[in-house]
Amino acid sequence: MKTVKIGIDAGGTLLKMIYEESGRFHYKTYSMDDLQSSMSWLKVTAAGAYVALTGGQSEFLKKNYFPNAITVSEFQANCEGAAFLMKQEGITKENYLLINIGTGTSIYLCKAREYTRILGSGIGGGTFLGLGKLITGITDFSDLVSLARNGEAAAADLLVKDIYHPSKPPIDGCLTASNFGKIRKSEDVSNEDKIASLTNMIAETIVLLSMQAASQHRINDIVYIGNTLKNNMQLNSRIGFYTNMLGLNPVFVQNGEYSGAVGAFLSL
Which structural domain range is residue 12 located in? Predict the structure, then answer.
């Protein structure tokens, strides 16, 4: 790989990298558990490259692998990277909320290329993996996503119509009254239904937080990025559904999980 610039976003679970070769961007993801082998490979194949680092483990990588690298704040890298990726897709938004769903979730206010982190939550990909393991014993992200895809959240969630039955509810009966609320009365809930319920809970929580921030700052466009969304159509679908239901405009950025790495790359 002949390249002169590399952007790396080193989080608690994954390392995401972007580099440019022959005018094309290449995106790669590595597990932090395989850090030694991946970084040893990179140091040999990209010797002499300019490297920019961001993320929680950026200082560790700088100390142990890339002493000449520059470090970029995660906040700046995510916002700049997302703006760049949106421009590549032809998405033009002047004012929007940027929702980064990683291990947890961060919410940024983006106005005319000025960025402010306004809110955060511990609900995110770490929640999906952690509770997913507690519920099913499964630790692989892709396997949990597959379970959710084949499940039905309503089998585990107590809905508004369940509470008001047989009367007509005063609001949409399909809304969630209590996540996992049916499980207390029934042991006959599959792992697929449980993980679908977990996915729904994460989507609802993130969208409700986004709605509150959007209302406060008079924003209509909600841009979603983050590795938790990658190949996770159930979560994408639920987030899109709830965002639209609240009268807001959801935007999902292609390769948005690499926003931090892209932002680091752009600083070089």
Answer: 5-73+259-266
CATH of the domain at 52: 3.30.420.40
Q: Tens digits of per-residue pLDDT, 90-104?
A: 999 999 999 999 999
Please indicate whether residue 35 or residue 63 has the higher confidence score (pLDDT): 63
Number of domains comprising the chain: 2
2 has pLDDT over 70: no
Q: CB 13: neighbour CB atoms within 10 A?
A: 16
More confident position, 38 or 238:
238
Active site residue ranges = 74
Does one domain contain both 64 and 151?
A: no
Per-residue confidence band for 1, with pLDDT thresholds at 50, 70 and 90: low
- pTM (2 d.p.): 0.92
CA neighbours closer than 13 Å in the CB half-sphere of residue 246: 24
Place of tokens 């005018």: 23
Residue 86 lies in a domain: no
Reduce the DSSP state of residue 57 to 3 states and report it.
Answer: coil
- CB distance 9 to 258 below 8 Å: yes
For residues 53 and 141, membership in a common domain is answered with no
Query: How far apart (Å, rounded) are the C-alpha atoms in residues 124 and 201?
Result: 10
Residue type, 157: D
Q: Is omega for the bond preceding 166 within 30 degrees of 0, making it cis?
A: yes
Q: Is residue 115 part of a domain?
A: no
- The alpha helices in the chain, defined as continuous H runs, are 35-45, 58-64, 74-88, 125-136, 141-149, 160-164, 191-217, 233-245, 259-266
